[in-house]
Design goal:
mainly alpha, Multidrug-efflux Transporter Regulator, Chain: A, Domain 2
Length: 118
């Protein structure tokens, strides 16, 4: 699979794929400047995107998928330890509270500005 095909398949940019390659997350076969992605790269790409949807950083994802072959356990969630899950839930809950607070402040400001303009 070429880089363009890979980008279309996963809905990411070419730049994203090159970045993941630079970080060592995927390792396409190189022929000159062309990149060719194998089945293992596609499996790892699915794991990377799933990890990002779960709110993990690329460093955390690298730790999760880096040491073992993706074919052993291609489901990133199966690689998580109970403490990692608990920590991530806490992190996401804190983020949600911060987002909810920011939305509340912005709504109040919007309401105040709308009243003042009227």
């Amino acid at each position: 699979m070429t880089i363009s095909q890979m980008a279309r398949l996963y809905g990411v940019s070419l730049r994203t794929l090159r970045f993941y390659e630079d970080r060592g997350l995927i390792k396409p076969r190189r022929e000159g400047s062309a990149r060719y992605y194998r089945s293992a790269d596609r499996t790892r790409m699915g794991m990377i995107l799933r990890g990002k949807k779960l709110g993990f950083t690329l460093s955390e994802i690298t730790d999760l998928i880096g040491g073992r072959g993706a074919s052993e356990t291609p489901d990133i969630e199966e690689r998580l330890q109970p403490q990692q899950i608990a920590n991530q839930i806490g992190h996401l809950e804190r983020q949600r509270e911060e987002i909810d607070s920011a939305i509340e402040r912005l709504r109040a400001t919007h309401s105040r500005l709308s009243r003042d303009a009227a």
